[in-house]
Write a structure and sequence with these properties.
Blueprint: H1 2-19, H2 37-57, H3 60-67, E1 70-77, H4 80-100, H5 109-129, H6 133-136, H7 140-149, H8 169-183, H9 191-212, H10 214-220, H11 223-232, E2 237-242, E3 245-251, H12 265-283, H13 287-292, H14 307-335, H15 342-349, H16 354-381, H17 406-438, H18 442-448, H19 450-468
Antiparallel strand pairs: 1-3, 2-3
Helix pairs in contact: 2-17, 2-18, 2-19, 4-5, 4-7, 4-9, 5-11, 5-16, 8-12, 9-10, 12-14, 12-16, 14-15, 14-19, 16-17, 17-18, 17-19
């Protein structure tokens, strides 16, 4: 019996050891919540509904004037070129680490940087502070240097012209490829494969920028730049170019969204796709989704067995979200007998999902950021697995228990719930202000937002259910 027990323990240890690399891209909970989540969900729905009623009673003029206030912070030199070149050098080092560094995704800095620090951490930083990507973009510096070498003016005339009808479709297509690779491809954390994908994408984007112009392709083709620019509109720091300097001002969260112009249909669908991908990532791991597809959650097959199922699911989530959102806008416009073109109304109101997208990003990836962020600090100190300790964190112990236990579960759930509710309340506020721009009448603006508010209440319930329901994987 003692020998059998020892064998069992050894087998369990081996399985645990081999399972560890999956954590490099994990965003799942390590526990099942035993909290009164039904009370939370009901309270959250009431909070979003109450915010709509309060906003309907407030004078839109005063609310808009208050939201437009700015606090000047002075100006700083625009160090975009040197910072971008450093960013590119770091990116090139990470790609090299993908090829010659550790094979373990939890020890290699490339997957940890892309999936945790870039896609999770920088997205949240953009939403909080503003457009940090303006400096960190690893294409700007190389593009300037190559353009100068060929006597071409950076950001000016380009050999080819991107037709106006193209819109955001390149960014939309490339983002869906990125989301598929992240959520469905069998090995998104494999350092070598990720290095090939990241390096190829960087070269392709640089070629497109040289062909169509840096500003145009960054705005409509390179999906990271397009997404970060949209998310940055929620940030509290507003930056305006003033010659060789950047004038900074402090603003209210989401204030810059009120100044946004309507997005074309391709831009609106691109923004909706970013929300749909995060939502499907959580939904695809629920017992409900797995059971719907005849999969036993306790005997979960590998990613390879779910490629077709989850590919269809991702597309279906996007189509459903886009259809319901368009229907809500259509019904709202019909209620006030609006003569505005539907694509203009939808292109304007789609900006209101930015707070929701940020809230879902935070809530969905919170545990991953807490744990994998520590692994990233360790890996970045020794990127090529040569025994270096560049930042003094190479031997830092990783506290995986930070996201486990009853107290952690309570704290994490409440942070996630507050983010989801807060994001939807702010979305109601942004939508209300945008509606007043479209319908300069308090009554008509509020009435046009009623269907959209009902959709946001439903999405609040859906988001909290996703966070509280049992998941596998």
């Amino acid at each position: 019996m003692r020998h059998s027990a020892a064998v069992m323990l050894a087998a369990c240890a081996a399985l645990a050891w081999h399972a560890l690399p999956a954590l490099a891209h994990a965003s799942d909970r390590g526990h099942v919540l035993l909290l009164p989540t039904g009370h939370y969900i009901a309270g959250a729905a009431l909070a979003v509904a109450a915010s709509f009623l309060v906003l309907a009673l407030l004078p839109p003029e005063r609310l808009t004037a208050f939201w437009r206030r700015r606090l000047p912070l002075g100006s700083i030199p625009d160090l975009r070129l040197p910072v971008s070149l450093v960013s590119f050098a770091v990116f090139a080092t990470l790609v090299a680490a993908g090829f010659i560094g550790s094979r373990d995704p939890l020890s290699n800095p490339l997957p940890l940087t892309i999936w945790t620090l870039l896609w999770v951490g920088l997205t949240l930083a953009q939403g909080l502070f503003g457009n940090l990507w303006h400096w960190l973009n690893p294409w700007y510096g190389p593009h300037r240097l190559v353009s100068r070498a060929f006597d071409a003016k950076a950001g000016g005339d380009s050999p080819l012209r991107l037709p106006d009808w193209v819109g955001y479709w390149p960014a939309f297509i490339l983002f869906f490829a990125f989301a598929w690779f992240e959520l469905i491809y069998p090995a998104p954390d494999d350092p070598a494969r990720l290095a090939i994908a990241a390096g190829t994408y960087w070269l392709f984007s640089l070629a497109a920028m040289l062909a169509f112009g840096y500003e145009r392709w960054s705005r409509q083709g390179e999906f990271l730049s397009a997404f970060f620019a949209m998310i940055a509109r929620f940030g509290i720091v507003d930056g305006k170019q003033d010659g060789s300097r950047l004038r900074l001002a402090l603003c209210w969260p989401g204030a810059k969204l009120n100044e946004a112009e309507p997005l074309p249909p391709s831009g609106a669908l691109f923004l909706l796709a970013t929300l749909a991908s995060v939502s499907f990532d959580g939904f695809s791991k629920t017992f409900f989704w797995l059971g719907l597809n005849g999969i036993n959650p306790l005997e979960l097959p590998g990613r390879s067995a779910l490629v077709a199922t989850n590919s269809l699911g991702l597309a279906a989530m996007f189509i459903l979200l886009a259809a319901i959102g368009l229907l809500a806008v259509l019904v709202g416009e019909r209620l006030v007998r609006s003569t505005q073109p539907l694509h203009k109304s939808a292109g304007l109101f789609v900006w209101s999902i930015v707070p929701i997208a940020l809230a879902y990003h935070f809530s969905h990836y919170l545990t991953s950021l807490l744990v994998n962020g520590q692994y990233a600090l360790v890996a970045l100190s020794d990127p090529l697995a040569l025994g270096w300790n560049l930042f003094g964190t190479a031997h830092m112990p990783v506290e995986a228990g930070i996201a486990m236990g009853a107290q952690s579960a309570w704290l994490i759930w409440n942070l996630q719930a507050v983010a989801i509710v807060g994001g939807h309340v702010l979305a109601v506020l942004v939508a209300h202000l945008l509606a007043w721009r479209l319908h300069p009448s308090a009554t008509r603006a509020s009435l046009s937002q009623l269907p959209l508010t009902l959709l946001m209440i439903g999405y609040t319930v859906f988001g909290l259910w996703l966070l509280s329901t049992a998941t596998a994987g």
